[in-house]
């Protein structure tokens, strides 16, 4: 179905958060502690706008809107609205509304709250652009903007070294993956000739048939795996918990980290359903699921426990997306929706506990259900959904994904076992989050625990209740959200029929019961599991996180060594490097392509022409055998004068006169400088250095000679000459074409050349005015002020 063209309102909806970022600091100063309420109107209106697309996209309609951005490069600011982008836009703006409110309560009274709001809105706009952009290049721009804004948010508390390290780590990992993604997009554009995602999706086999599927697949995976924290790039996400909790709840559970999952889902019609896709994604996704849950069990910090289960959930989503099995993809969409709701709520709950009790360590928490009843209720609802228990959306998601993995013919058993183990361990964490802080005897906390204000519990309550409500209307949820999103993944309109309760005693239900039983058993052994996993990790010792530090240290050390080698303070070294690479640049292409020009026959020169040539050769010999720099400079001028004579003989008197003037001034100025600086002795170079510089000089000369021969052997294109001959008189009012070109047609260029000459003259003047200061006598050191005062006192 051809997408329908819509007006620019959706484009404005993407840009609205950036406008809010500008005014957020001002509104924070005006409204003091109540700025969150007016600011939350912006994402709420965006949510309402995209909610208007729910009905049409549920019937298979798609929409596009576009405005030229860089038309000469084919880059447009364009959006593509379908089921997948609508679901993400609703999650970003809907959860973002409550994150803004939550930040207003969490950072109440913080002197930089306005700046924090500004960063949040910039990230929100970047994420909306990422999931809505139709143009590949504009999508990449917003992709990298999410990395930059997350860097600002993670490092918000920039006075703490841990925050700075976490922000830098996230930027390096996700930014590096973004560069790989850019390369992948460039290859896609080169291979297909298309730059719009909607056009590519209209021909889903265009990349698979291009012959460049493998590099495109690897480059796209590089961007997706780093953004969505897949093994071995998973380490940056838990470290990002150094950020304030609103950042953790928004970026690292509900939105940003799902950017890679969004990309894989978006590219599924183009790259999916191949042997490579169905091998690499399930393997890495499964490893990430298990690694994330194992590391989560080891933790006692609420945010870190939730962070590692977020890594695990992202692995589960990647594993399901990699199956290319319709029912497994349906489970991935359902779990995507469920995870955003319960994990966003649980992160805010963890922040509220920390804010009101003064600690997030579950070993130091207990009996908070009476002191924080609303937070406790929200925690129970969200944890039950995370555990996959009825009647929550997480339960339906687990049932559907088990149905998909069990029915996948390729690696169904292995993927199913991995999903069962991972879900059982996530049930353990969900139970720990809901039970440990709130049940048991009351433990004294650093702060007298009490219920947080409305701004802190509004988000968790709404998100956890939404997870319950969507399950109770499962059929409608499937029609309005899951079906349209699944249609985007499959590339064809698909309807979904969801039910809250299983219709029969089947394999998915049995697997769910096994998951719950295994999770309950493991929860009873939580302390032993924590000690066991901690011992295993201690035995392993080295990990990707430490490896990142070693990688950065290695890069810094290598850079320092390379700088010392290249920038050693010697002009001779810089010239050798510069001209050496110049020689390679002009010689290697011809060698690699076998396109060196033919050597022309020697022309019949007249005797005086041979004389000028002989003068040039003698000047070259004089330069090489000169004993002083001054002699070498004067001898070098012979070459310029010989070239000027050639210009004169072959009909270019203006150019010849210019060459005479330049050579004369160059020799005079250089000789003057050399005499003033007393640098007349010639350098004594060892034989290897002489051979190296000689080889570089010969290479540059040979390369430039071959380049000129190649140019002159091409057919002459007279269009530029004809243009100047035609318009020099009529437009520039000059008969001398060379002068007209220099003064009129190349006026700005000539101005630049004059500026260079003036700057060079000023530098020469500065060198000439250098005076050597006499050394201070060693026996009379300078007297300090304190010494002088002491002398007077004595």
From TrEMBL:
It is found in: Cell membrane; Membrane. Its main location: membrane. InterPro entries: CPA3_Na-H_Antiporter_A (IPR050616), MrpA_C/MbhD (IPR025383), MrpA_C/MbhE (IPR046806), ND/Mrp_TM (IPR001750), Proton_antipo_N (IPR001516). Residues 134-418 form the NADH:quinone oxidoreductase/Mrp antiporter transmembrane domain. Coiled coil: none annotated. Residues 72-117 form the NADH-Ubiquinone oxidoreductase (complex I) chain 5 N-terminal domain. It comes from the Bacteria. Residues 695-776 form the MrpA C-terminal/MbhE domain. It is a multi-pass membrane protein. Residues 781-794 have a biased composition (Polar residues). Residues 615-677 form the MrpA C-terminal/MbhD domain. Keywords: Antiport, Cell membrane, Ion transport, Membrane, Transmembrane, Transmembrane helix, Transport. The chain crosses the membrane at residues 12-28, 35-57, 77-102, 114-131, 168-192, 212-237, 274-297, 304-321, 333-353, 374-393, 413-434, 454-474, 505-523, 574-592, 607-626, 633-651, 657-677, 689-711, 750-768. Residues 774-794 are annotated as: Disordered. This is Monovalent cation/H+ antiporter subunit A.
